UniProtKB/TrEMBL annotation, chain A:
PROSITE patterns: SM (PS52002). This is U4/U6-U5 snRNP complex subunit lsm6. Keywords: Cytoplasm, mRNA processing, mRNA splicing, Nucleus, Ribonucleoprotein, RNA-binding, rRNA processing, Spliceosome, tRNA processing. The gene is LSM6. Residues 9-78 form the Sm domain. SUPFAM superfamilies: Sm-like ribonucleoproteins. It comes from Coemansia biformis. InterPro entries: Lsm6/sSmF (IPR016487), LSM_dom_sf (IPR010920), Sm (IPR047575), Sm_dom_euk/arc (IPR001163).
From TrEMBL, chain B:
PANTHER family: U6 SNRNA-ASSOCIATED PROTEIN, U6 SNRNA-ASSOCIATED SM-LIKE PROTEIN LSM5. Plays a role in U6 snRNP assembly and function. Binds to the 3' end of U6 snRNA. This is LSM complex subunit LSM5. Its main location: nucleus. Residues 25-100 form the Sm domain. GO terms for biological process: mRNA splicing, via spliceosome. It comes from the Eukaryota. It comes from Coemansia biformis.
UniProtKB/TrEMBL annotation, chain C:
This is LSM complex subunit LSM3. The keyword Repeat does not apply. It comes from the Eukaryota. Binds specifically to the 3'-terminal U-tract of U6 snRNA. LSm subunits form a heteromer with a doughnut shape. GO terms for cellular component: Lsm2-8 complex; spliceosomal complex; U4/U6 x U5 tri-snRNP complex; U6 snRNP.
Length: 78, 104, 98
């Protein structure tokens, strides 16, 4: 299979956003913003300076947070 | 009508079947979409449209210039994002070149 | 020395949990449940054993007559419990600010 030069795999994407501020949306609709410390193949995520948003409203802050990957809908850099 | 295994094999191994176009595997189809816009429908009432930059064996996808839609009742766009990694776990269907849902 | 440094760094998400062993953590679970307790043990599924646990369950009461909703939370304490990992949404260790 030919690989276009502009191809960007999930691994490429994750490497490019490590250490950046990210937006994480869970399947339940809860959103998190924070600094992406690391993640693994299950999409388990470790965030620093985490803010939790429910219906767009800030509900909680956590110094560090581990998010279990099965709950994750998507991750986006901000 | 009951057919023996041999009879069924004979049916499917007709010259016509052998001459048919080479089979395109599902993920090969998605691979051809890289660089193009794609419409992603989730198992839940949610859809995404964006340019497909890449994907992996679990069909986790990197999308660019993404619109996110909530499709409960009338569809409406609820977010736009530059680039996302979409978890493949809850994807239901992919439509190449998709224009997305008709928006209210 | 290198070992000590490695033991303290976060290289994968589960390291955050490992560093919280014997500390009081916050756990957010499916079904609007929250736990605060001391982390005694965990595994790769995030099954956990917590001690001195305070559980908070949040429920929405709907009043059909006046069409209002109100939140009600119930607290209880449990000396020791096992949490099945598949219900876990988020784990937050105690703040480690210097």
């Amino acid at each position: 299979m030919s690989e276009p030069a502009n191809k960007r795999t999930p691994t490429d994407f994750l490497n490019s956003i490590l250490g950046q501020r990210v937006f994480v949306r869970l399947n339940s609709g809860i959103d998190y913003k924070g600094l992406l410390s690391c993640l693994d193949g299950y999409m388990n995520i470790a965030l620093e300076q985490t803010e939790e948003y429910v219906d767009g409203e800030l509900r909680n802050r956590y110094g560090d947070a581990f998010i279990r990957g099965n709950n994750v809908l998507y991750i986006s850099a901000i | 009508m009951e057919l023996s295994v041999a009879a069924r094999a004979a049916l499917y191994n007709t010259p016509q079947a052998a001459m048919a176009t080479p089979q395109l595997l599902p993920l090969e189809l998605i691979d051809k979409c890289i660089g193009s816009r794609i419409w992603v429908k989730m198992k839940t009432e949610k859809e995404f449209v964006g340019k497909l930059l890449g994907f992996d064996d679990y069909v986790n996808m990197v999308l660019e210039d993404v619109s996110e839609f909530e499709t409960r009742g009338m569809s409406k766009r609820i977010a736009s994002r530059k680039q996302i990694l979409l978890n493949g776990n809850n994807i239901c269907m992919l439509v190449p070149g998709g224009r997305g849902p008709a928006v209210d | 020395m290198a070992d000590t440094a490695a033991a303290l760094t976060v290289e994968e998400p589960l390291d955050l949990v490992r560093l919280s062993l014997d500390e009081r953590i916050y756990v957010k679970l499916r079904g609007d449940r929250e736990l605060r307790g001391r982390l005694h043990a965990y595994d790769q599924h995030l099954n956990m054993v917590l001690g001195e646990v305070e559980e908070t369950i949040t429920m929405v009461d709907v009043n059909d007559e006046v069409q209002t909703q109100s939140l009600r939370s119930v607290n209880r304490t449990v000396p020791m419990l096992f949490v099945r990992g598949d219900g876990v949404i988020l784990v937050s260790p105690p703040s480690r600010a210097a």
